[in-house]
Structures are given as C-alpha cells and as structure tokens.
Amino acid sequence: YRQILGTAKDYVYIVSPYLILDNTMTTALTSAAKAGIDVRILTPKIRDKWYVHPVTQFNYQPLLEAGVRIFEYTPGFIHSKLFVSDDSVATCGTINMDYRSFYFHFECGAWICDDKTVSDIKTHFEEILSQSKEITIDDFCKVQMKVGEVIECKPVEGAKKLLVSQIKIGNEVRQIVSGIAMAYSPEEMVGKKVVVITNLKPC
After folding, report:
1. What is the pTM of this model?
2. Does residue 129 contact residue 71 with C-beta atoms inside 8 Å?
C-alpha cells in the first residue's frame, strides 16, 4: 500500500471497511495528497461493529486537513478492500486499512499490474463512489471528542478480543467496549488517557 502511494503520479482510490491507521500509513496518505495526488478513501456509512466505526472516523481529521477526500458509502455496509492507482496497478483481498490487519492478522491480497482487471476495479470504485457521501472537514468538526482516563478495565466474558472499560470524562463516567484485548491487558489499560467520542447515539 505504501509503495502504491509513494509511486502514484495521478490518483489513488481506496476502499476499506475500517480505517485505523498508524503514523506511518497516515504519513504516506497525507504526503501523497500534499504532493498533488488525488487520494480518495471510501468507507461504510453503516457500520458492522459499533465500536470500530467511531475509531475509523477519528482518523479522518489529519487526512482531510492534508487534502485526502473521504467518502462514506450510504446504501449499507461495504466490506471491500481495494486499491487502484493510475490505471496501472490495483490490489484486492482481505487487507483492511487497519493497524491490526497490517501487523497482527494473516491476510491475503492480489497485486494486479497492467491488466484489464485494473480498469474493472476502477469502474467498480466509481460505481460505489456515486452512491457515497463526501465527508468534509466541517462534517468532521460536528463530532465531539474528549480525553478521558480509564479507571477500571476487565475482559468481556465469552469474547477473546473485547475489553470493557470505565472511563472518567470530567465529572462523568462512561462504560466503553473496545476490541483491544489482543493488544492490551486490563491492567495495562488502567490509568491510560483515551480519546472518546461523546455524542454518538446509544446502541
């Protein structure tokens, strides 16, 4: 993915159900946009996991500020993982734009060069783009985010990947479930500062 972004001359179009980025990938995306590459990312408007979608949206700000264009697919959840660039190269497979996909999961993807399939993937992107809403920096600023502190954390019974945390935000305590148990123990989480989106509708 970084190679495509680093060598693009005209455009890079991306589809991913999740957008959970580390600094390296954020830098690759923003650097391409700042260099004049038309970088567009399409994510779902309708989520499959309520606790992942806000994290995806949290990653929008530095991308939007750098000139990356972000779209949300409105008809339903979209699970495609696609890159297409410059009418010459594309990828498809299981690899999300997601830190866990990059470093922890066993993923599989096809790299396609100078083949008609690249054009087919671009056409598919354009079709789903036509059913998507562009997210602007003004849209992003409507999301209310606050810094809180984890005061209690424990595993979710029967779920290997989930932790449930009590987070103190000012004078309020909120309970939040997150899919981070493979990366952090409950003991490690206590005392950590976290960013919380506070104006989501309750699930």
Report:
1. 0.71
2. yes
